[in-house]
Predict the 3D structure of the following.
Amino acid sequence: MVHTSTGSPLKIHIFSKHLQFLNYQNMAEVAAEIGFDGIDVTVRPNGHVLPERVENDLPKVVEAIRKVKFLPLMMTTAVDDASNAKDKKVLEVAAKLGFQYYRMNWFSYPDGKSIPESIQHFQQNVKDLSYLNKDLRLTGCYQNHAGNSVGSSLWELWELLKEADKQYMGIQFDIRHAVVEGGLSWQNGLRLIQPQIKTLTIKDFIWEKKNGEWGVQDTPIGEGMVDFKTYFKLLKQYQINVPVSLHFEYPLGGAQDGATQLSCDKQVVFKAMKRDLQKVHDLWQQV
């Protein structure tokens, strides 16, 4: 498992959703040229690799990223069921190719069941996946995500992982979503789940009022409400330096949404990516 010293620079991967206007080879070359350490590959519906084509296409991605001296390490999936043949195939192929971490799908609370009942049910799903992960020597990650899905609150994630083999199942901690949902108490949530953090997602946001309605607007790194100084200080305090996936969810000609055709010059997108990447490194070094 990859876990480096807190004094070391962060190992930052680009979320491949934002480069879906490029083929595998061009994606790899651009990521390397910008200065990333690797690629968090989307292996999911509408992703760079479709689950039903994983045996054919994921090796092509790995070949492309190895050509630029990257290693296959992180991927983002829709996996959520250890007994599902398609989910198992995605994980088996990825494990053989050398991937170590994957982000799984989110669960939704069903109608007609209490939240505690639902969490107990999903605990079994996560436990079963953790055992499959152990067999494959993979580490699964559940991302905290703002909204009404299971795990929007970090306390839910603590419950969700209770029965799992925590060496092979943990959390992809997303500071943007944690601050959206946690307001001023996100530090408590981080303190609670920090032993289970296996990977990180980094992005930034502000609250904005549009047409009388308050909503979340994503921003470039350092321009929003995330207190990166405190956050990075806490990560170092907890000795957390794990693989990072950098996201670009603010308007970028469609790249923010995984567009295959851009409405702006691609150099505008690359420049923004380079700026955010450098900003993260700078902020990490400052604390």
In short: The chain has a mean pLDDT of 96. The CA atoms of residues 119 and 159 lie 7 Å apart. The beta strands are 12-15, 38-43, 74-77, 101-103, 139-143, 169-174, 197-202, 204-210, 213-219, 244-246. The longest helix spans residues 115-136.
